[in-house]
Write a structure and sequence with these properties.
This protein is of the alpha+beta class. Helices cover 32% and strands 24% of the residues.
Length: 155
């Protein structure tokens, strides 16, 4: 017995033909290291106005020491941790915000920038960007390196 209902035309969805997503094809597979995603997220976070620095107290102290070593490079992944799968990535970021900046707006801007950069450069879907604000930077106009030692108030 034959059916009288017309059949829908077959659809060819490009994403369904590639079970590994855009990073896998019949010609091979592309793997992206955690450090690559961390660096991309770190650089994208630093691009957002209102971010003073990345990382908690310990990682910022180590970063400050690293910067003083001649020839040492800046750790762009400082304060960033990621989980990377075959198709997706999750990002956790620790920041120090500038004083006076709306932290809610700053978080929205960071998420938007990080998701756009990671997805554009790696073709990984970013499932979440978690942001922890560890401190607020007060710009008092002085440079910490050039401060004179405080005089004692008592003798």
């Amino acid at each position: 017995m034959t059916s009288t209902q017309p059949t829908a035309p077959a659809r060819h969805d490009v994403t369904s033909q590639q079970p590994g997503g855009p990073l896998a094809s019949s010609q091979g597979k592309t793997s992206i290291a955690h450090t690559v995603v961390s660096k991309i997220a770190g650089i994208a976070t630093r691009e957002v106005s209102g971010v003073f620095d990345l990382g908690g107290g310990t990682s910022r102290a180590i970063g400050a020491l690293r910067e003083r070593i001649p020839g040492a490079s800046v750790n762009h992944a400082q304060g960033v941790s990621v989980e990377v799968g075959e198709k997706q990535a999750a990002v956790d970021i620790d920041i120090v915000a500038d004083y006076g900046v709306s932290i809610a707006d700053l978080a929205v801007g960071i998420r938007r920038n990080v998701i756009a950069a990671v997805e554009r450069m790696t073709s990984l879907e970013v499932t979440e960007v978690n942001i922890t604000v560890n401190d607020v930077h007060l710009d008092d106009g002085s440079d910490d390196d050039n401060q004179a030692p405080a005089t004692s108030r008592v003798q």
